[in-house]
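[agent] plan:
  1. take the single chain provided in the ticket
  2. run structure prediction with default settings
  3. attach structure tokens to the ticket
  4. add a short note for the reviewer (M.T.)
[agent] executing step 1
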Amino acid sequence: RSRGLGDVYKRQEEFGDLQRLVDGLFYDRRAIDRLDLIVQAEILDLAPDLMEIVNLLPPGYYDRQSLCDQLNSALAAHGWGAVYGTVE
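[agent] step 2 finished; step 3 output follows
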């Protein structure tokens, strides 16, 4: 399916959503597990593309840096870093 102008504007609105997710998860924690990430992403109703990125992470526990590395790697593999932003 081709993406129209509406899709471009929608993706621009979603820029930074993963960063907000990471910031919220690590507000008061040092580590999270993959299930925490998926549940919070669903609560925030992330876009399907971003849910795909979240679901690519292997099971396990992540500190902030390792989670960001995994998310950024998945974003880069899809070529979506410029579209959705990277996380730190």
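[agent] step 4 note for reviewer: Residues 58 and 84 are 21 Å apart (CA to CA).
[agent] ticket updated
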